[in-house]
Amino acid sequence: MGRLDEAAFAALHARSARALRAYVYRVVGNTSDADDIVQEAFLRMLRADVPAGDEEHLRRYLYRVASNLIVDRWRKRTHEQGEEMMPEPASPRPRYEDDAAIAKIFAELKPRDRALLWLAYVEGESHEEIASSLGVGRRGVKVMLFRARRRLRDLLQARGVLVNS
Amino acid sequence: MTEWFDLDRDEERAVAAFMSRVASLQIPDPGSRIPDPAQLWCKAALLRKWDAERRAQRPLDVMLPIEIAGGLVAAGLLLYWSIPYL
Description:
The complex is a heterodimer. By secondary structure, chain A is mainly α. In chain A, helix 1 packs across helix 5, helix 2 crosses helix 3 and helix 5 packs across helix 7. The longest helix of chain A has 27 residues. By secondary structure, chain B is mainly α. Classes of the chains: A mainly alpha, B mainly alpha. At the A-B interface, helix 1, helix 2, helix 4, helix 5 and helix 7 of A face helix 1 and helix 2 of B.
């Protein structure tokens, strides 16, 4: 299998950059970090000289690198601050219609939970695909995803958010 | 086994509904600072070149202190052996 050439890379970039940025942005919560991470993920993929071929495989490679970078950055930040970074608590009853309130509730989850939920619900990935995107075991994903969903459910209940829209 | 990993239907619906709202949220600054693919390609080529140079340079970097230490030992021995003739 040959190496990824410039045209194939441009095509991959065109098809995946926006979605990857949306994923990273929702997990890290700011555009500056999201842009840095997306750029770094593409550069690492190119530097690693991954073989060209299945675009889905390359896309998943990008998500895996980006997910690792997110975790690294999060660990670095929490280490520097000496405590876990927690977003400001949301108001007790945010209006569900309010985009900012939704973003805020989502931001209250841990980055790993946000990543899992995004990949499962927004990207529509299977357990196997999520495992590949995050570089974790398939069986572990099932448990982690269940816990992430449960934490989100608890959060929605605690905020008194009516989700039956 | 799988049931244990499932929320009940209403909860699952609530989570799915919430996530679909999250997915539809606007991402700020759509014209982001992510460089275009041509720029990334050039930057990666440059980084790959530096990686290759660094790899090629590594044995020389490892050998340098060994060479210096060897030179110092040799100089010391030479001095030691030449003391009787001084």
